[in-house]
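Incident log entry.

Two folding requests arrived from the same account within the same minute. Monitoring flagged them as a possible duplicate submission, but the sequences differ. Recording both here for audit purposes.

Request one:
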Amino acid sequence: MRKILASILTIGIVATLLGVGTIAYFSDIESANFTISAGVIDLEVNGENPWCEKFNIELKPKWNWEQNFTLHMTADSNPAKACFRITDLQNNNGNESEPELWAEGATYNCTTHEWNKTNWHPVCNLSDNIRVDISFNSSCTDKKVWYIYENGNYKWVAKDPNWDWKQHIDQLPTLTDLNTIGWIRLTKECAQCGLPEKLLPCHNYTFHISFHNTLNNNDNEYQGDTTTFTIEFYVTQTDY
C-alpha cells in the first residue's frame, strides 16, 4: 500500500511540474499582414499604348525624313531600364523599271520585246545606303547624346545640343548596321555619360530618329527597291 501511495504522490508531483492544469503562464502574440505586389511596367510611345503607328516613306534625292518619339512611363509604372532596336529588316527588289534593269546588267531584245537576264545581277541592299541619325534626351536633363561611330565602335556620345550630323554623316550607322547590332541601351551604363539612369514615371523622354539618303544620280539599280523594318522599344523593371 505504501508503494502505491508513493507512486501516486510521484505522479502528482511530476504533473504539477509540467503544469498540467495547475499553472497559468503569461503570454503575448503580435502579428502583421503582408502583401507582395509584382508592380507595373508600362510604356507609352507618342501617347499611344499600345503603339500602333505605321510609316510609309518614299525615297527622294537629298531626302531626309525625321521623327521624334516621346517615351513616357505611365503614372502607375515603376522606373525602368530601356533599350531599342531595329529588327526584321528586309530588302526587296520591288518594281523593276527599265532603267533599273539596264543598270543591273540586263539587255533588251527589240525583236522579241523581251529582257535578256543572262548577265543580270539585281542589286538589293537599299538599307546600306540609308544613314540613320539617332539622338536621345529627357525632360529632366539638358544633356543630349547621339548614337555614332567613334573610336572604333558604335556608342552613345554626348555632344553639344546643336551638333550637326550633316558634317559627320560617315559616323552615322546605316539601317543595315543597326539591324545587325540588335538591342541598344537607352538608359545609363557605366561608360555611357549623358543617358538617363532609368526612365521615371511621368517624365517625357525624346527619342529622335532621321533617315538620310546617300544615293546619287548614278544609282539607277535601286529604282523601285524597298526596305522594310521594325523599331521596337523594350523596358524592364530595375533591380532596385
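Request two (distinct sequence, not a duplicate):
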Amino acid sequence: MITLHNIRCRSLTIDHLEILPGITSIIGPNGGGKTTLLRLCAGLLTPMNGTVLIDGKTPGQTETGYVNEFPDRNILFPTVNDELASPLRFSHVPCKEITEIVTAHARAWDICHLLGRRMQDLSGGEKMLMALATACITRPTLLALDEYDSHLDASRCATIETMIQQSGTTYIIRCTQQMETAASGDYLLFIDHGHIIHAGTPAAVFASLSGTPYYPLSWRCFG
C-alpha cells in the first residue's frame, strides 16, 4: 500500500491517502495538483511536510519508473538501444544480461525495428512508446505516468494499456485527460485546487461527476 500522510507540497494538501495495488488514475483541472501528487509518489519531489511510504519504504528506496508528459524530456541517450538499456545499466546489471533483456523486451513491446535508430529521429508517439518501454524494463514496483496517452492514437493506447497491465508492476499511477482511460483503471482520484475531492472506484467517482466534463463520453451514450 502507498500511504501519504499530512502532506503539504506546493499547492497540494493531503491529510491522509491510501493507494492500493492496481491502476490508479488521477483526473481534474490543470494546476490542481495532479502532477505534484504523481511526482511525490515517484520520489521526484520531497514534501515540505508529511510522509510518503510505498509498502513501508520511502520512494527513494523503491524501484520506480516515471514517464514525463513531454516526450523529449524522457530522453537521456542518443540511440534507442542505449535509452532502453539505461535503467539496467544504472542498476549495474551485467552487460551480457542487458543485451538479452533488451532484446526480449523490445520483442515483447514490438519495437525491435526502432533499436538502431536515434531517439531524436523518432516521432512524438514513438518517443512516448520508448519512454514507457524503458520505464517498464526493470519491472518497477511503481510506474508513474504523466498524461502519456495524450501523444498516442487510440489504437496504440489500447496496445500500451495491455502492455502496462502485463508489466508486473504493483502500483500504476497515471494522470490523464482521457476519461475513457481513467474509467478503465481500478481506482480514481479527482483533484482540484490542491485537494482530493473524490476518491474510490471509477463507478463511484464518476457518479459524483455526472453532468460535468469529467464524465466518460461512452458512459453518456451507453450508460
